[in-house]
Design goal:
Blueprint (H helix, E strand, L loop, with lengths): L1 H12 L33 H21 L12 E11 L4 E12 L2 E12 L5 E8 L8 H6 L5 H6 L3 E6 L15 H6 L12 H18 L3 E11 L1 H12 L5 E5 L19 H7 L22 H6 L5 E7 L7 H11 L1 H5 L22 E6 L7 H13 L4
Parallel strand pairs: 4-5, 4-6, 6-7, 7-8, 8-9
Antiparallel strand pairs: 1-2, 2-3, 3-5
Helix pairs in contact: 6-7
Bound molecules: beta-D-galactopyranuronic acid.
Length: 397
Amino acid sequence: MKTTIALAALAVYMGIECHGAAANQETAPRNVPELMRTFDGAEVKSLDDWERKRAPELLARFEKEEYGRRPAAACERARVSFDVYDEREVMDGKALRKLVRVTYKGPNGDFSFPFTAFIPKAKKPVPAFVLAANIKRGTLDEKQALTSVFWPVEEIVARGYATAAFRFDCVAADRKGAGFSQGVFSAVQREGERNDESWATLSAWAWADSRILDWMEMEPLIDAKHVGVVGHSRGGKTAIWAGVTDKRFAMVCSNNSGCSGAKLNHIDLPKSEHISQILKNFPYWFCVNYRKYAGKDMEMDFDQHELLALIAPRLLCIASATEDSWAGQQGEWWAAKLASPAWTLYGKKGLVADKYPAPEKPQQNGCISYHLRKGPHFLASYDWHRYMDFADRHGWH
Ligand code: GTR
C-alpha cells in the first residue's frame, strides 16, 4: 500500500498520469486480423513469405496509417554528429557519466538535443538500455537521474548495464497544437511539405532513440549489439516504434504502453483507452491518416499484435500494472500472445504462456517477456529489474 502511494505521488510529481482500478476477469479478443495472412488473402507459410511479403506490407501499413513515414533525410547517418561536452566519474567511481549533444544537419537547418549516459566501469563493453524519458519537469542531470525512480540509474549500473536517456520535449513538443515546425521536425522539412502520412511526434521520439544508438555504436565502452530500448506509456509506444523501425535494437521494453502501443484493439475492454480518445487528446502523436480509425478499433484490418510481430526474432518485453486498466492490461498480454507465431517462423518461442498471469509472476520463458506489476501506471524499479532479468537470461551478461 505504502509503495503504491509513493509511486503514485512520484508519478504526479513527474507529470505522469495515474489511471483507474484494475479489471481482472478474463476477456477474449474478437475478430482479430490474421497475422499470418497477407492483405490480399494469401497464407504466410514460411519465413521467406514473412520476410519478403508480410513483414514489409505490415511495416508499410503502420507507417502509412498510424505512426507516419519519416522523411529519408531524417535517416541519413552522415547528417548526425556527437559532442561529449561533460564527462565525470560518479557513484564513488563505479560509473562514468557523460553528457552528450546530438547534432543533426537537416535539409532545412540544424537541430540538436542533449542526452545523459551512465556507463559502469567494467573489463569489457557493457550492454545498455536507452530510455525516452517522458518527464515533464526536471532535467536529466546527475542529481535528478540518481534520485529518480523512473530511471533508477544506480540500480541499472549495479547490474552491469549502461543506460542513456533523453527528455521528450527536447526533441519534439508533447503538446497539442505545437505543430510540426518545432523540434527535430523543423530541421527536416517545412510544415507545407507534410501530408497525411507524414511522421508525427511518436516517430520523432523514436528517431531520437536511434540517434543515441548511433552514438553507442561509436562508444567503445558499450556493447552496441546488446542495446534495449525502454519506454513507459507514450514512451512505451515510442519504444515499440523505435524497435520496429531500427533493427539494431536487440530488445524492446514497452511499459504500460496501452492504446496504440502494445494493447490489442480487437478486444472489448470498456475501461481502457480507445483510438477515438487517444486521437482527441493526442492527435499529434500520429499521422493524419490514423484519424479514420477513430471508433473502428474492432473493425480495422490490422492491429497492434502485428506491430509487435515486426520485432521478431529479437527480444520483446511487455509490462502492465494491476491498477492501469486505462492501458488495457489483458489487451497488452493478448497482443504479445498473438504476435508469437512470428518468432516460431524463426525457430524461436514468443510468449510461452497459455494464461494471463497473476500479478508479479513474470512469464519469461520465450523471447517475449510479459509481467503484471502491482500498482499504478508507472515505470518502477520492479519493471526495470524484470527487463534486466530477461536480458541476463538471454546471455547479455
Ligand atoms: C495517457 C494516454 C495514454 C498514455 C499516457 C502516458 O493520458 O491516454 O495513451 O500514453 O497518457 O503517456 O502517460
